[in-house]
Design goal:
Number of strands: 3
Structural class: mainly alpha
Shape: globular
Radius of gyration: 26 Å
């Protein structure tokens, strides 16, 4: 019973007391996991770990590999330099005011994985039946897994030798005392997890080298984040056109209007501020779904239980499957979120309850929405609502949700660019964006840096206006970048960095995830390309029309 109780508490954030530490997950992070600079401050060499925790995880194993030692040394140099890493986390002396709790990290992850596509999920049940519901649950598990193994790649095991206490040595019966008649101190080797990498880019550099790995992942991250920002702006404009169909304002004009409230995002300084916006985004999300669900329950007597099929529409379901997989992608943000947590041992439980909640809610919402409207379910379920006033209310909350969703990918984009190019000379080509001049975030944002951030908002607005069929183009490019960043690369990097140390079953599952990611990527690229060709030819952008 005690073991069952501990397992249950390990799944709840803040479930353990100050005196208790439980093993949260296969890829957990203990509270005493620490940056390498903490190890050095405690007098431990670069090839070993040590320092700073209330508990130590004792592991068996051999010596640290040369690759690990190099990573630890380079990680130590980065952390001692005082510059923020590419994930946005500064060194060990970072002020606690920029740290976030597990709940705040959970709001950011929920913002990413609930997404704007929830209103299209009942239609996936129309195309995939019960298999669509299964896909929502399986995708949640796989994406939660890849998120944890990606963060696991930030860490390496390091050896630490320490002297046992004198009474421990006496109990061990050690002989051959010293010249003072005291028994010689015995030494034992412990292994500790050291965070030697700070971002997705650094993980890629470890596997592929700085010349290729860092640049490839940086470009993929930048494209994925920028396209997400642009899509939110475009959705706001299209929703506003639907709310006010009789006005003379065009889609481009509405995009400009919706972009104005986004300009203050340039002043965002930490994930703590973004977390509050993500919280209100989740509130808007709950209101939208509450309105739709309440209407569905008012028609519970007419639910079409037999409308859910076991068969799959093979021509259209792959597109919906891609939407399901993309709706769970948060891997780009995870290294930064985990690095900024006050208690990193809460990372794995946070991933568990956010993805479990999302899977249960998406499956229930999709099933209830579909049985309410049956075969008349439209691609966006809000279009099934009976009257224009109700549609307008829901669309207004969708606009609010899109605007509140924008800051998270925008902040990640700005942080990615600043960490790559603006950490200060000689580490980067350009000076720091902050007035303190050392790459930290203690000083105010410089004027030219603020203007660059504002220009980034304007840039997303202009692309939303000028790029034709942007949503379909995003599906085409995102089928590659999204699947690579969320499925293929985390599993591949995990195999490359951890190797045979993680055991044969884990290696097989990583290979399985890579195969699934490549299949989803190929299907998404194929169908999105067909849709883009049809759109430029003037037809409906559905690759295969129903007859």
């Amino acid at each position: 019973m005690t073991g069952l109780f501990r397992h249950f508490r390990s799944l709840i954030p803040f479930g353990s007391s100050a005196e208790e530490t439980f093993s949260f997950a296969r890829f957990h992070n203990d509270p005493d996991d620490t940056e390498l600079s903490s190890f050095r401050s405690n007098g431990v060499t670069a090839s070993g770990g040590g320092g700073g925790g209330t508990k130590e995880e004792e592991k068996e194993g051999g010596k640290t590999s040369p690759t690990t030692e190099d990573a630890i040394r380079s990680g130590g140099r980065r952390r001692q330099s005082g510059h923020p890493d590419e994930s946005g986390a500064a060194g060990c002396d970072e002020s606690s005011r920029n740290r976030i709790s597990a709940w705040q990290a959970g709001w950011n992850v929920t913002n990413a994985i609930q997404g704007m596509f929830i209103v299209t999920f009942p239609y996936t049940v129309f195309e995939g039946g019960y298999w669509a519901i299964v896909a929502m649950i399986v995708a949640a598990y796989v994406c939660c897994y890849t998120g944890k193994i990606l963060v696991d790649c930030l860490y390496e095991d390091a050896d630490e030798e320490e002297e046992e206490k004198e009474e421990d040595a006496d109990q061990a019966g050690g002989g051959g005392g010293t010249k003072d008649g005291q028994p010689p101190p015995s030494r034992r080797c412990r292994r500790r997890r050291v965070r030697v990498r700070n971002s997705y880019v650094e993980i890629a550099e470890t596997v592929w080298g700085k010349m290729i790995g860092g640049r490839v992942v940086f470009v993929a991250q930048f494209i994925e984040l920028m396209m997400t920002c642009i899509l939110y702006v475009l959705l706001c404009g299209e929703l506003m056109v639907g709310i006010f169909p009789g006005t003379t304002l065009t889609l481009s004009a509405w995009i400009v209007v919706c972009s104005a409230p986004l300009l203050p995002c340039a002043f965002l300084r930490s994930l703590r501020h973004v977390a509050w916006l993500s919280f209100w985004c989740t509130v808007a999300h709950m209101i939208i779904n509450a309105i739709i669900l309440v209407y569905c329950f008012t028609r519970a007597a007419d639910w079409q239980w037999d409308a859910v099929q076991v068969k799959i529409d093979i021509w259209t379901f792959p597109i919906s499957l891609g939407i399901v997989v993309f709706s769970y992608t948060s891997q780009i943000f995870l290294p930064s979120l985990e690095g900024n947590l006050v208690d990193r041992s809460s990372f794995a439980p946070m991933m568990h309850w956010t993805h479990l909640t999302a899977a249960v809610f998406k499956a229930a919402f999709s099933y209830i929405g579909f049985v309410t409207f049956g075969t008349d379910t439209k691609e966006v379920i809000t279009n099934n609502l009976p009257d224009q006033p109700m549609k307008s209310i829901v669309n207004a909350f969708l606009v609010a949700k899109a605007l509140l969703s924008y800051p998270l990918p925008y902040f990640a984009t700005a942080d990615l660019v600043e960490s790559k190019f603006f950490r200060g000379r000689p580490e980067t080509a350009f000076p720091s964006c902050f007035a303190d001049g050392d790459g930290g975030d203690g000083g105010p944002l410089r004027l030219w840096a603020l203007l660059l951030r504002l220009a980034l908002v304007v840039f997303t607005m202009l692309l939303a206006i000028v790029v034709p069929h942007f949503a379909i183009l995003m599906g085409l490019i995102g089928s590659f970048t999204g699947n690579m960043l969320s499925l293929v690369w985390p599993a591949y990097f995990h195999l490359a960095i951890k190797g045979r140390r993680m055991g044969y079953p884990k290696m097989v599952f990583d290979v399985f995830v890579i195969v699934i990611g490549l299949v989803c990527s190929g299907l998404g690229i194929y169908y999105s390309f067909h849709a883009l060709v049809r759109a430029f030819e003037g037809f409906e952008p559905t690759p295969f029309q129903r007859h």
